[in-house]
Write a structure and sequence with these properties.
mainly alpha, 2 helices
Length: about 110
């Protein structure tokens, strides 16, 4: 009788091996998926950074080429140097609304 009670208590507590294996498989699967996603993002980021670096180099060489060209009307002057854009010497439009709107009479 005592032997039966001790067997019954030991077998009812704890997890069985199959439950532990399923839990470990689920944890390992989620870890592998997240690791794959991280590696894919890291690769994408490095590719974008290399493209960005190449574009910066090309833009810098173009800018240096444009910087070294003299203005056709003034020898040695730079074309649109302040703005570094074509037609940079035109007046800028203001985005601010006029200060004085149509004034209403105080009597109304």
């Amino acid at each position: 009788m005592i032997y039966r009670a001790s067997i019954h208590c030991n077998s009812s507590s704890g997890f069985i091996l199959l439950e532990v294996l399923v839990a470990m498989t689920m944890v390992m699967g989620s870890w592998m998926v997240s690791n794959h996603a991280y590696q894919k993002l890291a690769l994408n980021l490095s590719q974008q950074e290399s493209k960005r670096s190449q574009l910066r180099k090309e833009f810098d060489s173009y800018e240096m080429e444009m910087h070294s060209r003299p203005h056709p009307h003034q020898p040695g002057a730079l074309k649109d140097d302040a703005a570094r854009v074509p037609s940079g010497n035109h007046a800028l439009r203001t985005a601010v609304k006029p200060l004085v709107k149509s004034q209403r009479s105080a009597g109304k």
